[in-house]
Design a protein that fits this description.
heterodimer, A: about 475 residues, alpha+beta, PmbA/TldD fold, six-stranded mixed beta sheet, 22 strands, about 20% helix, about 35% strand, B: about 450 residues, eight-stranded mixed beta sheet, 23 strands
Chain lengths: ~475, ~450
């Protein structure tokens, strides 16, 4: 039974007019590791809170006000409602009618909740910790130097003035691990590969293979050279694209971007002709996957780019209202350019992507794409490459990559920078416009489900 | 409505009860609120920062720290949250380090308190700012955000500490956007400080027009150079170097995890006499300033690099004990739901004795990096990344063409050794920002500095 925090808060304050209450009961469990030792355990961290929004038409536009609180006393809730009303009085946005969703009941969806984590969070963290540490035990030159495993169990409820009354339970997990390679010749500096996994479940089964890969990356950091400089073919695997594409799509293909004059016209050819990009709110185990979005609109799947041309944009309720339309199920809270806030109730909804899906192509495996690249660069990890919200230019230091020489993945490289626009005006070069190869197999990486992409020409600054 | 003070006896009672199960217990309660406004040409949004309250309880189990937290502040809820902490081992190790005994109450003081600021005043300022910006040709969009926050923290521990503080911070952000032939470019101006309403006095017609002109100029910006070259960082980018590139390696929790390339270099000379780097949690008006940290220790000024020599690190109670020094007042939680880490506060490069013009002439050729946007730490590997919004080429000892956004990369130690001069610009202007440890736990920090000349790899980003 999912706690109906929103319903209880609404009953306490009985708002009038058009309103929405988003409530959560959150339990969080955390384990911090220093080497193989537990440095700190935290939990349960228990938070209950609501975000309360009021919306009203006024003189040909809409007013809306939002306030959130963790203080659920009747006096505090009344003050929260009053604060939202005062905010609404000072606010205005385009549109005349906000179409709030309807429906009721406890909902579930595929790949939303990890049942083992839900039923025994402390035990699930313990089992995952053991499975994470086990592969390191046999390694003499690689260790886990620092790490954290953090799991959130969220009971979300939304009620609104149109009769919406929905609830669901969901799990979220983030794992950070510093994998350190050391030893060898006297005086040689250790190397580190930083892992940041964002997921919906604590699944220990892939850890053995993952640790082997991370250990190889950490060792390769130590023997890496500087990348070359120039405009070269660059191969981006899904993990490297996960920090880039969802933010690019949200900043350009959303109702908010359209309002600010940054969105392309429908039909504008911005991307490579073979590229198909979707937003999928129901992708099992996707970061934002849920039976409904944070405004209660049912999750959906929508093609945003087809044949390289823009086919649709994403909207939340208010951005939809600005264009006489409805939400596409893309009202998300707790989202920020630098990471997701597990306390979603603290934020008002904004239109952003759910899981960005790039349809697989015919380019084959990573090795086959490298063969097509000839001479270039495979990016494994960039340092904080978050795209600029106006220009979509992303980039940063190459934390680890590999040279591609003669069509083969060769020695490791590190340092220097890789960057450029993610999505530009028609006819202008960008990551998505310059795609010349699309891998045949997609992988889920955070908020992205994509195959590797080969970009025919991208700027690398190195030696 | 509840206040922290109304639960102070509950906090003391719960800490006292738990001290029967643990050798040391501390409780940090927090309540924060705020307001503001965000405007663009299409919409006006009055912002009401959420009222967040709750308490974190930390205890020493004899072998590790254990924590729980609750958003309900009554004694029964706190006891329930603490139930999961268990009991300390009777044969466990003693609590590491020295416990705070700080007692006192502090608050940000201002003749014009931020909490008295009406949202309608900020909306009026935002409307003015948008109007001023749109008078500049090709500026079709502009975002203004002005907001303030009030963060109350109350700390109690089983060693007798009982301290409270109220910190008020205000910030204004201007983002004018220029359009031409399908190209969009922006400028980004941020002003923020601990204090009162005076932070918004900096949003004037000349400031806004200058920002709008910068956005317009960016429409004609060229492609930045790529490769290894002489670089001059402006004060903001220099501050990001002080914080992200260097400062994270001085957080001593990374020392004890064997995760800092700087740990074995403490006491050695890392750079020329020109360079000094400081962290100062007491800096007046600093975005990262506070009166005490989240272990109850008073904040302080800590010199990290003194004329090229690496002389100091930032410590919590655990690392201070490991290194035989005192904690430096740098233990911070993002909020009551976040764990404490060793964190920076206001970090800056101290002024040198060059002028900017002398630095440009000394560089001869290279690039001037301006308007820092972000940086990334690499405490073990010692690599650095600084992204800037714009810059200028330096050719034949002169500042020449405007170029678009760039990233700087290199090894921190190489960058330090290659420093050839620091501008004499006095009193660093702190730029407000937020810093995470890993990918989460964002909290307010500031950084600053002067123009500095060194060498690094630069490329478009």
């Amino acid at each position: 039974m999912i706690a109906n925090v929103a319903g209880q808060a609404a009953d306490a304050v009985r708002p009038s007019g058009t309103w929405e209450v988003f409530g959560q009961r959150l339990r969080r469990f955390e384990v911090y590791l220093a080497g193989a030792q537990v440095e700190m355990t935290r939990g349960p961290l228990v938070v209950e809170g609501v975000g309360l929004r009021v919306i009203a038409p006024s003189d040909g536009h809409l007013t809306s006000g939002f306030q959130a609180t963790t203080d659920l006393s009747p006096a505090s809730l009344a003050a929260t409602l009053e604060s939202a009303r005062r905010s609404a009085a000072d606010s205005r946005s385009p549109g005349t009618v906000a179409h709030l969703p309807t429906g009721s009941g406890e909902r579930s969806g595929e790949g939303v909740c990890d049942p083992a984590l839900w039923s025994d969070p402390a035990g699930a963290l313990d089992r995952y910790r053991a499975a994470l540490l086990a592969p390191f035990e046999g390694l003499t030159d690689v260790r886990l130097s620092f790490g954290s495993i953090r799991a959130t169990l969220a009971e979300t409820s939304i009620v609104n003035s149109e009769g919406l009354d929905v609830r669901c339970g969901a799990t979220h997990v983030d794992v950070e691990v510093a994998v350190q390679a050391f030893g060898g010749p006297e005086g040689r500096a250790p190397g580190e590969y930083w892992v940041n996994l964002v997921s919906r479940r604590l699944d220990p089964s892939p850890l053995k293979g993952q640790v082997e890969t991370w250990a190889r990356f950490a060792r390769d950091v130590r023997r890496s050279e500087r990348p070359p400089s120039g405009d070269v073919p660059v191969l981006f695997p899904p993990d490297a694209l996960a920090d880039i594409l969802p933010a690019v799509v949200s900043s350009r293909l959303s109702g908010q971007a359209r309002l600010r004059g940054l969105a392309p016209e429908i039909g504008a050819k911005l991307a490579a002709p073979d590229l198909r990009v979707l937003d999928d709110g129901a992708r099992p185990w996707g970061h934002f996957t849920a039976p409904f979005d944070d405004e209660g609109t049912p999750a959906s799947r929508r093609t945003l780019i087809e044949g390289g041309a823009t086919t649709a944009l994403i909207y939340d309720v208010l951005d939809g209202a600005a264009f006489d339309g409805s939400s596409t199920g893309n009202g998300h809270r707790g989202d920020s350019p630098v990471g997701w806030d597990w306390r979603s109730f603290l934020g008002r909804p904004v239109s952003s992507t759910s899981t960005v899906v790039v349809a697989p192509g015919t380019g084959g495996t990573l090795d086959e794409l490298a063969e097509r690249a000839g001479d270039g660069l495979l990016v494994v990890q960039l340092g904080f490459p978050i795209p600029d919200a106006v220009t979509t230019v992303f980039g940063g230091e190459l934390r680890l990559g590999y040279r591609i020489r003669g069509g083969k993945i060769a020695g490791p490289v590190r340092g220097g920078t890789v960057g450029g626009p993610g999505l530009a005006a028609p006819g202008q070069p960008s990551l998505l416009a310059n795609v010349t190869g699309i891998g045949s197999h997609a992988e889920l990486a955070g908020e992205l489900d994509a195959p590797p992409l080969l970009v025919g020409s991208f700027t690398v600054a190195g030696a | 409505m509840e206040t922290l003070e109304s639960h102070e006896d509950d906090f003391t009672t719960v800490v006292h009860e738990l001290s029967a199960r643990f050798p040391f217990v501390e409780l940090l309660a927090e309540r924060s609120r705020g307001a503001g406004a965000r405007l663009n040409t299409q919409s006006v949004t009055a912002l009401s920062r959420p009222t967040i309250q709750g308490a974190a309880i930390r205890a020493w189990s004899g072998e590790r720290w254990v924590e729980s937290a609750s958003s309900r502040l009554d004694a029964a809820s706190l006891r329930a949250a603490a139930d999961g902490l268990g009991r300390a081992r009777s044969d466990g190790r003693p609590t590491p380090g020295t416990s705070s005994t700080t007692v006192g109450r502090w608050a940000t003081r201002s003749a014009r308190p931020l909490a008295d600021l009406e949202t309608s005043t900020l909306i009026g300022l935002g409307r003015d700012a948008i109007r001023w910006a749109k008078e500049v040709p090709e500026i079709r969009e502009m975002q203004f955000e002005g907001s303030w926050s009030e963060d109350d923290r109350l700390y109690v521990n089983s060693a007798g500490a009982r301290a409270s503080q109220r910190i008020l911070r205000g910030v204004a952000v201007l983002v004018p956007i220029a359009f031409r032939d399908g190209r969009a470019e922006s400028a980004y101006v941020v002003r923020g400080r601990e204090g009162g309403q005076e932070v918004f006095d900096s949003v004037t017609e000349p400031t806004v027009r200058a920002a709008a002109e910068q956005a317009r100029e960016m429409l004609g910006a060229g492609t930045p150079p790529a490769g290894d070259m002489n670089v001059i960082l402006d004060p903001g980018a220099c501050g990001v170097f002080a914080h992200e590139s260097f400062g994270h390696g001085t957080e001593a929790d990374q020392f004890v995890r064997n995760r800092s390339y700087l740990a074995p270099l403490l006491g050695t000379v890392l750079g020329p006499d020109e360079i000094s780097i400081v962290d100062d949690g007491t800096a007046e008006g600093g975005w990262g300033s506070s009166f005490f940290d989240d272990e109850g220790n008073r904040t302080q000024k800590t010199v990290l690099v003194d004329h090229g020599k690496f002389v100091g690190a930032l410590h919590d109670r655990v690392t201070a004990a490991a290194y035989g020094v005192r904690a430096t007042g740098n233990t911070r939680r993002a909020d009551f739901l976040s764990r404490p880490y060793v964190r920076m506060t206001n970090t800056y490069v101290a002024p040198g004795d060059w002028t900017k013009e002398e630095l440009v002439e000394e560089a001869r050729d290279g690039v001037l990096l301006e308007r820092a946007m972000s940086g990334v730490e690499d405490p073990l590997g010692g690599q650095m990344q600084i992204r800037v919004h714009r810059g200028h080429r330096i050719e034949h000892g002169e500042v020449t063409g405007l170029v678009s956004s760039m990233a700087l990369s290199g090894r921190v130690l190489d960058f330090l050794r290659a420093i050839r001069g620091v501008d004499q610009h006095a009193d660093p202007t702190f730029e407000p920002g937020s810093c995470g440890k890993g990918s989460t736990d964002l909290l307010p920090v500031a950084d600053g500095g002067s123009f500095v000349l060194s060498r690094a790899i630069v490329g478009p980003a």
